[in-house]
Predict the 3D structure of the following.
Amino acid sequence: MKMRVAVLQLDIALGDKKKNYENIERWMAATHTPSDLPTAVVLPELWNTGYALSRAKELADPEGHDAQAFLGGLAKKYGVWFVGGTVLVSTGSGFANRAQVIDPKGNLVGHYDKVHLIRLMEEEKYFTAGRQDLRFDLEGVQAGVVICYDIRFCEWLRSYALQGTEVLFVSAQWPTARADHWRALLMARAIENQMYVVACNRCGTSGDTHFGGGSMVLGPKGEVLFEGGNGEEAGYVVIDTDEVTRTRQFLTVFKDRVPEVYKKLV
């Protein structure tokens, strides 16, 4: 099945929701073109606030309702899905780094709270880690969502593939200092799981940290279908999930697994 994916590789104004909302509106207006294909748009991690975690009480969106309404309005206006792009939310038990999936009618299909919290960014001091994956049907495509640091945990992404995921969406704030890891890990996750990986990273600078973009769309053989530069840009790519089926039938990785040998991993 064919569909269109889009990554909006944007800079993020630290703690300035209004500016970040306006930037997304501007880029959608400037780059989106109508299509008969289902279209999924991916935004960077914490696109509404950036890593302004010390201001979480002030900035957090209660259960993500404000971000949902904003993206829902754009989804209806342009007839697209928004998949991933995480927001800083407040919950009944604290705060979460939450990805939202919103359909073209503006409805919230589901959300994913980041499971693997990166101590390097002190996420564990602010966020409550998620404990559930997020897989959903995107108009006939089996899709899933993870966030940034999650891609370092191969067993987590393999669990998505084993449950039939064909397209995995990744939102990130991945620094330039480890850009080589970003590229290598995304390619490895696509190859080993024989699925499309659609990864949107931010660009720009927050404090002393530079984010170099490099958003990617990878095919199920690891082929690079789109790779962003280091500035703001939008990348639109048509993919065909029948290629996932063909790849998995040709090289039968999942049939050739020996899971009884892997029990020591648990």
